[in-house]
From TrEMBL:
Name of a matching Pfam family: Response_reg
Taxonomic path: Bacteria, Pseudomonadati, Myxococcota, Myxococcia, Myxococcales
Biological process terms in GO annotation: phosphorelay signal transduction system
Every Response regulatory domain range: 3-115
Keyword Phosphoprotein: yes
Keyword vocabulary terms for this entry: Phosphoprotein
Protein name, UniProt field: Response regulator
Positions where 4-aspartylphosphate occurs in the chain: 52
PANTHER family linked to this entry: RESPONSE REGULATORY DOMAIN-CONTAINING PROTEIN (PTHR44591:SF3), STRESS RESPONSE REGULATOR PROTEIN 1 (PTHR44591)
Length: 122
């Protein structure tokens, strides 16, 4: 199973989500903008992406547009994270949405629905 790629320009959010998912047993990768996210996706295909809507360099919609053009990435499930009103992101080709602020259970529920429970590690 590929990592859960967490993409957000707010380092505190990236760090908190990464730590939570890692504690639950998921492998994670992170990026602080859309361009870095695309590079990481091409290095290792993620199992899903938690993607911020508004970021510098390349925003969430720009990442989705690039992914749609890439056959290797177009079917990776993406959950858009945003504090913006639904009018901004409802039309985007995402597998799910996570309105900010979200709580731990909302986050874990979305991840489990998208990729299932974390792999067993022994």
């Amino acid at each position: 199973m590929g990592p859960v790629l967490i993409v957000d320009d707010e380092f505190g959010i990236v760090e908190a989500v990464r730590d939570l998912l890692s504690d639950e047993g998921y492998r994670t990768a992170t990026a602080l903008n859309g361009r870095d996210a695309l590079e990481r996706m091409r290095q290792e295909r993620p199992s899903m992406i938690l993607l911020d809507y508004m970021m510098p360099v390349l925003n969430g919609p720009g990442v989705l547009e690039s992914m749609q053009k890439d056959p290797a990435l177009r079917d990776v499930p993406v959950v858009m994270m945003s504090a913006s009103p639904p009018d901004f992101w409802q039309h985007l080709p995402c597998a799910g949405f996570l309105p900010k602020p979200f709580d731990i259970e909302q986050l874990l529920d979305v991840v489990r629905r998208m990729i299932g429970p974390p792999p067993l590690t022994h």
